[in-house]
Design brief:
It contains 9 helices and 7 strands. Strands 1, 2, 3, 4, 5, 6 and 7 form a 7-stranded mixed β-sheet that branches. Strand 3 and strand 4 form a beta hairpin.
């Protein structure tokens, strides 16, 4: 059953079906939290590292030098209503966020759908600013306008962590490192199933 369910609902895991009214309501929700109206922010994007048991093979490819553990990386888009709009398959722990972003194809997806014209997603410092995505400013000697922008956007960006927290709260097994053996268990379908069922609970 575990591979069967994600196969049937894969379209909503790769990207949740949204209407123009949904995007407008998301942008309005972010605007009420201080995001400038001209930004038209509809979601927050980030990559999460989920620790796995140390594998017997390909240890180096799964090792994150930043976090100092073996892991898989999942890219997600979080909407202000709590829905996880997009979840990319797990990538090797050694990969950077920019690599995961390019491999996911999410930028092309947003550009190729007219309903997303004028709307952007918010990323952290690892992401670049373009026509479909904005990121917070990095550096120590920032101009006052950038400091104000970061003061508003950084708390907004933390909302993407709530989606990850809900997944492991509802399905605690997905956060149990010793049983997450990549060569013995279907870890990516498990996570995708957890994301889908979490969205079901959010809708309920």
């Amino acid at each position: 059953m575990m591979p069967l369910i994600p196969e049937k609902v894969n379209h909503s895991i790769v990207f949740y079906d949204l209407s123009q009214d949904d995007l407008i309501s998301f942008a309005d929700a972010f605007a009420r939290k201080g995001v400038p109206d001209t930004v038209n922010l509809f979601s927050v994007i980030d990559v999460k590292k989920k620790a796995i048991c140390k594998p017997d093979r390909h240890q180096r490819s799964m090792y994150s030098g930043h976090k100092k553990f073996h892991c898989l990386k999942y890219q997600s888009l979080e909407a202000p209503n709590g829905l996880i709009l997009h979840c990319r398959i797990g990538d090797d722990g050694r990969r950077g966020d920019g690599y995961v972003l390019c491999r996911s194809g999410i930028l092309q997806f947003l550009r190729n759908h007219a309903s997303f014209n004028g709307f952007v997603a918010l990323g952290e410092l690892a992401y670049s600013t373009n026509d479909v995505m904005i990121s917070t400013h990095k550096g120590r000697q920032l101009p006052p306008a950038s400091v104000v922008f970061n003061a508003v956007m950084c708390p907004i960006h933390t909302s993407v962590e709530w989606g990850y927290e809900k997944v492991v709260r509802y399905w605690a097994f997905l956060d149990f490192k010793k049983q997450k053996k990549i060569q013995r268990s279907a870890l990516v379908p498990m996570w995708h199933l957890g994301v889908f069922l979490t969205n079901c609970l959010t809708c309920a």
